[in-house]
Amino acid sequence: MAKRSILVVEDDPAIRRGVVDALQFAGYDVTQAGNACEGERFATQQRFDLILLDIVLPDGSGMEILSSIREQSPLQPVIVLTARGDERDRVNGLNRGADDYVVEPFSVKELLARVE
Description:
Shape: globular
Mean pLDDT: 95
Oligomer: single chain
Strand order of the largest sheet: 2-1-3-6-7
Number of domains: 1
CATH architecture: 3-Layer(aba) Sandwich
Largest sheet: 5 strands, parallel
Order of helices and strands: EHEHEEEHEHEH
Strand content: 15-25%
Helix content: 40-55%
CATH topology: Rossmann fold
């Protein structure tokens, strides 16, 4: 059986490394992007079983990437991972098409439960 593929778009190297390590340890095939440009390129040119997407990126908005993903692949599963946790941000992310919205800090157990 093929490994499930996940794209992680996260600019913070420590968070990205922790997420990637946890997912790889759990048996996922992980592609990583550290900025919006790279993340959007991967998200719109390749097929992933799941995309984990930060909203606040140094060179663009994760919400813009989410909109691009939804235009091309309306059924693509996307989970937002972000430090922006107030209700307005969470509701906006879900209304813009995120399948789930996880606020940092989060535990590896919580992340894996949401991914699975």
